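Q: Got a minute? One more chain.
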Amino acid sequence: MNDNPHFADADCSEWSAGPWLIALGGRDAVGQEYRLGTREYDWHQHVRGQLLCVESGLLHVRTARGDWVLPPQRAGWIPPATEHRVQVCGALSGWSLLLAPEACNDLSNKPCVVGISAVLQALALRAEGWDKHSALTLEQDRMAQVMRDEIRLAPTEPLHLPMSSHPRLAGVLQALLAQPGSERSLEAWAEWGAMSPRTLRRLMIGETGLSFAQWRQQARLSYALAKLAEGETVLQIAETLGYASPSNFIAMFRKAFGDSPARYFSASAGKGR
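A: Always. Here it is, folded:
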């Protein structure tokens, strides 16, 4: 595949002209050097909106609104002209849809993770073979309209980790990300961040929309997804996150995502896609 985590030719993602929907696919070579490593792509943006679907591997995307992870069989929506940074975990395969700015008017103006329907996946794979330099035919345009409707109606998934630009809160959040297994209390973190517990609670809700406990749980889930994609075992992750046993970690994971880690990362765990 291209050396680009978005499964996209950089030129295609910058086209304002051409077909209003372009589909691209890509797969890392199985034996290539990044098999279980990571690649990082610094802050950038694209003219077109992007829907990124991961079939294997994992993407970690950061925007001004926060972080989100994109595991297998889910898709991430990045609106046009949205600054973002990307980290790729493991060998990556999947596909991408690039939509002209005017085709994104009725789609979300915020980055998000969505479920993928079988209809959208089938049409996207078919569209990979379309001529990327010619206007869509009438038949292709009808299929493209269906794909846009599928994106618009797709259910969002709770894989977003909101961040903050407030200096003291940002420091606490970054420290929590660096110590995902820490059991330090809210009061202890408030002292660490040179603020009162009440101030920390207020900032958490005001800046992220989540309570301290909710945010920490979401951070742990994001960590777990990334490490599972990199090939770490459930036992290793459970120990890092401070769970008494792997079964306790699996129970937490199933409560959040509706599946065990193994099923969640299975291509067949489509949840009605």
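A: The first strand starts at residue 21 and ends at 27.
Q: Perfect, thanks.
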